[in-house]
Structure formats: structure tokens, C-alpha cells
Amino acid sequence: MEDQQQQQQPHLHLANQLFLLQHSDIADIEKVTLRDDVTSYVISNDMALLYESLCSSAVLEFDEKVLDAMRVRIDEEVKKLDEKIADAEENLGESEVREAHLAKSLFYIRIGDKDKALEQLKVTEGKTVAVGQRMDLVFYTLQMGFFYMDFDLISKSIDKAKKLFEEGGDWERKNRLKVYEALYCMSTRNFKKAADLFLDSTSTFTTYDLFPYDTFIFYTVLTSIISLDRVSLKQKVVDAPEILTVIGKIPYLSEFMNSLYDCQYKSFFSAFAGIAEHIKLDRYLNSHFRYFMREIRTVVYSQFLESYKSVTVEAMANAFGVTVDFIDLELSRFIAAGKLHCKIDKVAGVLETNRPDAKNALYQATIKQGDFLLNRIQKLSRVIDL
Known about the structure:
3 strands, 19 helices, 26S proteasome regulatory subunit RPN7, Serine Threonine Protein Phosphatase 5, Tetratricopeptide repeat, mainly alpha, three-stranded antiparallel beta sheet
């Protein structure tokens, strides 16, 4: 991932560093290096507000002289930018005025002043006619949204971008937006939609401002495994040439995916541990760690049980390379939560599957919805009679 790091939006790289710096699983020696890198970047870009915030939370050490120097440089730069805007408005054309306002917007983004950046981007948008340029302003807003993990801002910006594309827009920007939306969906636990959008972008990926291609493939494979059925997984992921060219570079991912598809469950659990560590250290997936681990286990246990009408607990434990007690406890939890359709005969030590009848389930759902509708109509009729 190193060779493409320089193409990632610098603030998003900083956000990853800040996440790792505050993560308990990162060694103290690594944190020293991270802290030095973060301090250097924050100061060199005059990110005064972020510096104050990090110092107040004891992430960085406070130095009043450093903060004062940043504030002085910010005031000087804002003065210069305002002078350029005034000059453009008096002596130059509309495009130069727009460029002067855009420069001020980018400055506020650079120093991490979110409120002023959003305000200035609105001013710049008011002076922008071309759909492509207005779309670029939305991408700047989206990048800020991901930096601050402001999902309300991200959602509104994605909706705004889609409305802009109804007016026009090129394919390159549309494909970029797919990846932005996929990352938003993944970050808000909509893994099915995220997988669909990621897969649609595998052959057109150019969104290096968000993350390198290796990371993109990592997200694509993970979201696909818990979202796609076995046949679709084979067609869209396991045999996909774009994924095959990169997957070997990502630790544990190839073994994780292929061992699941090939039903090599011992190898799967071995790779599973390595993937789990990777997910823990991912800024976008970390908050969904427990949910994701549970969903993955549901997929693999369901896949194993689909092959049997009944199987001994010991045979399943041997297949996964774990103890009988572990499998017994695991399956009990998933069965109680309605995730697995089977029952455990504790005396005989046997698992009996009871696959749900899809037609019967649909019938029951229809009856339930019909009853609910009738109850609503009866309540409404009483109100009307009164």
C-alpha cells in the first residue's frame, strides 16, 4: 500500500494516523513515530483547531508558542486571500473570482476549519456554473465528512451529488461517487449495498484520494463475503481478474476467501484470526468489529450445515479445528439469535438441521401483514364512525 500512499488525500491519511495513535493495540514504539508524524503535519498545515483539540485530549503536548504562531500565519493568509478575491472582483472575470474563492475554501479545508470551509464552499458554489466543477466541490465536502466521520454531512452530500448528475456529469466522476457511497454504506453497516457498489467499481477504480487500490479490494472482498450467495461470490469475487491480481498482496485475504469457498474450514479459521486483527486496525470497520465477526461466523457455519441433514458436534468441531465445547457454545448463541436453522441434541451429540421452507415463510409473512392491515382498518373505522 506504500506505493500509492502519496495519492491519498493527505487529511484522510492523517485521520488514519490519529485513529491508530489512539488505538490500544498499537505498540508504544509505533505510537512515538505516529505522534511525531501527526505533530509535524498538523503544525506545518497550521491546523490550529485540531491542535487544540488533540492537546486537550492529551494526544499531543501543548505548546502555546506553537499555537500562537499558527494563528498568526492563518490570519496573514486569510488577509492575502481576501485581497485576491477583492482584486478579482474589481479587475478580473467571473472565472478568476471563482478561483479566488475556491483557493480560500481549500485553505480552510487545509487548516481543518470545518465550519468556515463549508461556508466558503457554499460561496464558491454560488459562483460556479459547470456541473463538473460543482461536483468537485461536493467531493471536497465528502472528504471533510470522512475526515470528521460526519455521516449526516456525507449522506446529504451524496444526495446532492446524485441530483447534480441528473443535470449531467462525466463517467469518471460518477464512478468516483460510487466508491464514496460504498465507503459510506460500509461505515454505516449497510454491507449489502456497499458490496454492490464496490463490485461495480472494480474495473473503473480511480478513487485513490480515499484509499489505495489494495484497501479497496480488501473492503470489496469483506463486504461481498457476508452479502453474496455462494454462486455470486464465485462469479463476482473468487474468479474476478481485478481481484485476483491484487488479493495476494493483502495478508490473509486470499486464504480467507478461498478457504471459505473451498470449504477448508481449518484454514479459514487460521486466516480469520489474521483478518480480525486487520479489521480492528481499520478506521472505517473498527466500530463494526463484533458485528462483522458474528456475520462471518454465521456465513461459514451455515455453509457447513447446508451439506448435512444431521451431523455430530464432534465432526463439526474437527472440521473447524476447535473443541466440541467451543462449537457447542457458538452454535447455541447463533441458534438462540435465529441466525442458524438447526437444533442440538445434547444427549446424542448431534446437530439436526431444519432448513426453513421459503414458500411457507412467505405465506406466514403475508398472513401476519394481512392481520396487521385489518387491525389498522378496524381502528380507522372506529375513528371515522365517531
